Amino acid sequence: MLRLGVQTSLTLFDLAALRFGIAALLLVGVIWRRGWAMDKLGILGVLALITCNGAPYIMVLSFGFEFAPASDAGAINPGLMAVFVGILGWIFLSENMRVAKIAGILAVLAGTALFTDLLTLRQASFGHLIFAITGGMWASYVIIVRKTNLPALHATAIVAVGSALSFLPVYLVSFGGQILQAPARDIAAQAIYQGALTGALAVFAFTKSTEYLGASAGAALTALIPIVTLIMGAAFLGETVDGWKIFACALVGLGVFLTLYAQRSSAASRRSEMTEQQTTPRQWPTGESGA
């Protein structure tokens, strides 16, 4: 949808305005009822959430498109985000770093590098570095939300409404009349997709998945984005699929499986330990009487 959007008269700035403007309208009621979660985040935490997954994040990502293909961003950004979350989750959330999880992270990293033809570094550019930075920004959003136990809907609303308040005034002053030149059909389609589905529903669903699965496992699933993009690109845009990209996708898929397996094994171990503690009879200390 992003590729289709920029093929019309819409720009990335227009798409960002639709994304955060529509999402803010849908979620402003959450902020009205619950506020900005200052008790959990503080002003710096609120700004960090908006920066790492809101309008500043989109602008940094868009800047990378000037130096590297957007298709590479679709692989590097979510792939490295999953890698960063695995490492940061171990550091800040005390998540277990099992052998299977380490192997999964390495497989995702290798698959992402192969998918974008970066293993030899001959195709590397400044844009790829920016995509890696945005992956770290997205990962920081995940860690902040999980560290503060902020509900998924509340976090999504903070990002959407905060981004609208910070980005839309600048956009209207700089590009205000530009979007009106686009066909109403294109605006409506992108408003639904970018605003309702991506800006609101997708961010909420992703954040909610990290509550259920844990930060690393939830983030690992996003590494499947290039696989889905490859399939849909071939099906709907007529793009060709090379054999090496299929192998790269297989590596990424293996990495996601190993990460989920490690998370499941870790959860099973914790449940076993809790059950053992509950069923073990309490041992009262015994001692000899001094009498």
TrEMBL record:
<feature type="transmembrane region" description="Helical">
    <location>
        <begin position="100"/>
        <end position="120"/>
    </location>
</feature>
<dbReference type="InterPro" id="IPR050638">
    <property type="entry name" value="AA-Vitamin_Transporters"/>
</dbReference>
<feature type="transmembrane region" description="Helical">
    <location>
        <begin position="12"/>
        <end position="32"/>
    </location>
</feature>
<feature type="transmembrane region" description="Helical">
    <location>
        <begin position="213"/>
        <end position="237"/>
    </location>
</feature>
<keyword id="KW-0472">Membrane</keyword>
<feature type="transmembrane region" description="Helical">
    <location>
        <begin position="152"/>
        <end position="175"/>
    </location>
</feature>
<feature type="transmembrane region" description="Helical">
    <location>
        <begin position="187"/>
        <end position="206"/>
    </location>
</feature>
<feature type="transmembrane region" description="Helical">
    <location>
        <begin position="75"/>
        <end position="93"/>
    </location>
</feature>
<feature type="region of interest" description="Disordered">
    <location>
        <begin position="270"/>
        <end position="291"/>
    </location>
</feature>
<feature type="transmembrane region" description="Helical">
    <location>
        <begin position="41"/>
        <end position="63"/>
    </location>
</feature>
<keyword id="KW-1133">Transmembrane helix</keyword>
<dbReference type="Pfam" id="PF00892">
    <property type="entry name" value="EamA"/>
</dbReference>
<dbReference type="InterPro" id="IPR037185">
    <property type="entry name" value="EmrE-like"/>
</dbReference>
<feature type="domain" description="EamA">
    <location>
        <begin position="126"/>
        <end position="260"/>
    </location>
</feature>
<feature type="transmembrane region" description="Helical">
    <location>
        <begin position="243"/>
        <end position="262"/>
    </location>
</feature>
<keyword id="KW-1003">Cell membrane</keyword>
<feature type="transmembrane region" description="Helical">
    <location>
        <begin position="126"/>
        <end position="145"/>
    </location>
</feature>
<dbReference type="GO" id="GO:0005886">
    <property type="term" value="C:plasma membrane"/>
</dbReference>
<dbReference type="InterPro" id="IPR000620">
    <property type="entry name" value="EamA_dom"/>
</dbReference>
<feature type="domain" description="EamA">
    <location>
        <begin position="9"/>
        <end position="115"/>
    </location>
</feature>
<keyword id="KW-0812">Transmembrane</keyword>
<protein>
    <submittedName>
        <fullName>Threonine/homoserine efflux transporter RhtA</fullName>
    </submittedName>
</protein>
